What does this fold into?
Amino acid sequence: MSTSPASPGSHESSGAPEASLAHRVPDLGALQLLLAVARLGSLGRAARELGITQPAASSRVRAMERQLGVALVDRSPRGSRLTAAGALVTDWAGRIVEAAEAFDAGAQALRVRRDSRLRVAASMTIAEYLMPGWLIALRTQRPDTAVSLLAGNSAAVASRLLSGEADLGFVEGLTVPGGLDEVVVAHDRLVVVTAPGHPWARRRKPLGAAELAATPLILREEGSGTRQVLDAALGGLARPLIELSSTTAVKASAVSGAGPSVLSELAVGEELAARRLVEIPMAEVRLRRELRAVWPTGHRPAGPGRDLLALTRSGAAGAGGRRS
It folds into this structure.
C-alpha cells in the first residue's frame, strides 16, 4: 500500500523530535540588539545603548547567526550594516518585540488589578477580635488596596475560598476541609463563662467534663470553629440551650444571665475584666485550638494577601504550618 507524504501542517512525526520554539527563535535581548544595530548603524553604539560591552554584543550577534543559519550583520571599520537576510529578520524582530512589550504591559495591568483589592473571609472570632488590627497594619503597607471582609463560620470560609469568592481565609476549627492549604498564625483558648449571678460563679471546685456536657449551654452553631473544639472535647455530647450564629450574640446572652457559655478568651477579655462575666475553672477538658490562615491548594497568596499573611504570622513565633 502506498502512502502520500505528510503535508507541511501535518502532525505526523518525522522520526526526530522537533526543536522547541525556545531553541529556534532568538531571545528578546538578541532581537533588541539587532534592532538597535539597524537603527544606529553601529554595533558599538548599539551595545552602549543596551548597557553591554561590544565584545558581548558581537558574541550575541554571532550566536544569533548560528542559531538562524544566516549572516545578519556585515561589519566594517565604517560601522555595521544589515545583510538582506538581516533586514528581513529585523522586520520580524520588530513585531516580536512590540508583541512582548504589549504582553508585559498587560501582565503589569493584571498585577495592578490584583494588588488593588483583597477579599478576606474569616470565622467570627478572628473577624471580630484579630482582623481589625491586622487590616490596620496592612493599610500602612498598602494604602491603595481595597479590602473586603466576609465574616462567617469556618465552614462558610472554606466554601467561599473553594468557590473563588475570597482570596485568603482564616478559620478556628480543629480540621481544614480538603482542597485548602493552611498555616498556623495564632493559638487560642476557649473558656467557660457565666454571669456573676450564676451558681457556677461561686463554686470552688473546677468544673468537670461530665457536668459541662450535662448542662445546657449557649453555643455557636454547628460548623463554627468554637463548636468543633467543644464537641471534640466533650465527645459530641455538648447540649445546646440556645444556638446563635455570632460570637457577639452568644456573649450578650451569657452576660444577660441566660446561661453558661463557652467562648474564645479573645472575645471575653473585656467582660471578664469588668466582672460582667466570670470564668469557670475547668478540669479534664482541653479547650485549646490553633487559628489558621487557609487558601486554595496550590495558590499561595500573592500581593496584598501575601503581605497580610506575613503580618498575621509575625505574632505567631514558633507556630508551624502544614499543607492539608
Notes: The chain has two domains: 21-112, 117-324. The mean pLDDT is 84. Residues 11 and 152 are 53 Å apart (CA to CA).
